[in-house]
Amino acid sequence: MASARGFLSTMARSPFMLRARVVLPMTGPPIADGAVIIRGRRIVAVGRWRELRGNTGARVRDLGEVVLLPGLVNAHCHLDYTHMAGHLPPPKVFTDWLKAITELKAGWRGEDYEASWREGARMLLHHGTTTVADIEVVPELLRRLWRQTPLRILSFIELIGLGRRRPIQEVLDEAMQHLAILKHPRCRAGLSPHAPYSTVPDLLRGAAEAAGRRRCRLAIHAAESALEHLMFRSAQGEMYRWLQRSGRDMSDCGNQSPVQHLHQCGCLGPNVLAVHANYLEPVDVKLLARTGTHVVHCPRSHAYFRHDPFPLRRLQRAGVNVCLGTDSLASVYRSRRQVVELNLFDEMRALAARESWLSPRAVLRMATINGARALGLAGLVGQISPGAHADLIAVPLKTACRDVWEAVLRHSGPVCASLIDGQWAIPLPS
Fold first, then answer.
1. Which of 79-83, 140-144, 330-334, 382-386 has the lowest mean pLDDT?
2. Over 80: is that where the pLDDT of 286 sits?
3. Any idea where the domains of the chain sit in the sequence?
4. How far apart are CA 396 and CA 405, in angstroms?
5. Residue 65: its pLDDT value, please?
6. What's the CATH number for 72-374?
7. Which one, 17, 174, 281, 338, has the greatest CB density within 10 A?
8. 225-263: pLDDT as tens digits
9. Which residues of 13-40 are buried (b: 16+ CB within 10 A; e: fewer)?
10. Second-level CATH architecture of 4-70+383-426
11. Is it the case that residue 430 has pLDDT exceeding 60?
12. How far does Cα 429 stand from its chain's mean position?
């Protein structure tokens, strides 16, 4: 058997085949003694080993006792907050956390964000994520950071504007300049008006119009907290008073929910990721479904803030595409001696523990196929099928395992191996 290095050197010149005890394509049932053929950056065939082994010219690598599955899709993350882990204890109210992280960020410099971003990317890669949607506070760093990781990245440029400190058009123009220069074969950029409460209608409308012109994605923290819902619905509560004191124009508050506010501003649709969506009225669920807006749920962050139960059943019954994200380590509980990492497997296990009615297969789909759909990559990532990117991960499979879906869901620790675009991001030991 060739070494991993020698095997890697041949991949660009000829097709190669990966054999595994089980292949989990996500689009169908597990394939025992399965194999995947890759040519260049794409998958060209998937099936049983005995059916594919005669493929002429395909060099074979037997991965052994593993499950081979698509790389995970993390639909919401803040990579540059990774080093904030443990700095912010769970708040009594949501605005306390907003104030605390604003104060913490005020002491950070560009190099702090850069180091934090790199560490977050390393964590995701080692725990099976191959595609990530990331909110970017310092987009000036992206051209350099994109080159430092094999991850497939959709970077959302964060927009915050309350109308007085900076002209709204200046905020939008700056973001569009970044979009124009950010080019990479595996990475792309979108826009993220931070949240309804941290923006104003003109910024939301401008971002939606710009995203439409550029045909890019929008990501918005929406209906995240009870205080946000109270602010928009009733013009009351701690968030309303805090932002009013800060000088925000509050004329958009008092008659509708945050989701209805976003809809009025043109910020719902099939290119939009509504992140969190924890506090929803019946009409909100209908709006999200009717507009084709995607919802990203972050289970550990949800638990950290002690939010009301996430409305997963209602969203799924309405036909809303719900996927998973890690959020940031600034909003994941850590005890004094506990190590926390950006790990989508941890998010899946947290979700499965809380929503016992969900099957392991359904949970895994939320971290693969559903995330790919939300990011505009349906059929390209999150599944093993001909034509998809060769983004694959391998996790160990215990001999006594009866349910492959359950075994993958319960995996902990780093993955055995990872490929992105047909290249070893984490090679198997020789």
1. 330-334
2. yes
3. 4-70+383-426, 72-374
4. 12
5. 93
6. 3.20.20.140
7. 17
8. 999 999 999 999 999 999 999 989 999 999 999 999 999
9. eebbbbbbbbbbbbbeebbeebbbbbbe
10. Roll (2.30)
11. yes
12. 28
- Strand 294-297 and strand 272-276: pairing? parallel
Structure tokens at 397: 């499979």
Token digits for 341? 């990492």
pLDDT bin (cut points 50, 70, 90) of residue 1 is very low
**Cα angle vertex 81, ends 145, 140, to 5°?**
35
